Amino acid sequence: MATAIAPIPLASFAGQPSSSIGVAFIKSYAAICLEGCMIVLACIIFSQFAAAPPAIADDTMAAATIVWNYVGELIFNMLVLVGAIKMSDRLVRELMGLG
Fold first, then answer.
1. Residues 55-85 pLDDT 10s
2. Distance CA 55, CA 62 (A)
């Protein structure tokens, strides 16, 4: 959506009094792109964790215990993914100084 409306704020570079609008838009657009990169990276890390076999290959454990351990590990990884996605907005805003 920011790319679709980009020509409007970028046109503000034409005049000296309105050039701050263009600078603010470019900072905001860079923050959106960086946030997208962080979300993609979090999804890649999650998929690698999800694809790895669980470290519960103990033959002495009951089948139900192994399944519940796997479900618990999957839920934990999902919570980490959701937390990383939620924190990406705040982290990028602080890094870019957008408050």
1. 666 677 787 888 888 888 889 888 988 888 8
2. 15
Please measure the distance between the N-terminal and C-terminal CA atoms of the chain and give it in whole angstroms: 21
11, 37, 59, 64 from 17: Cα distances, Å: 12, 33, 72, 68
Q: How far apart are CA 67 and CA 61, in angstroms?
A: 10
Q: Are 22 and 9 in contact (CB under 8 A)?
A: yes
- The answer on pLDDT for 5 being more than 80 is no
CB atoms within 10 A of CB 4: 7
Instruction: Answer yes or no: pTM beyond 0.85.
Output: no
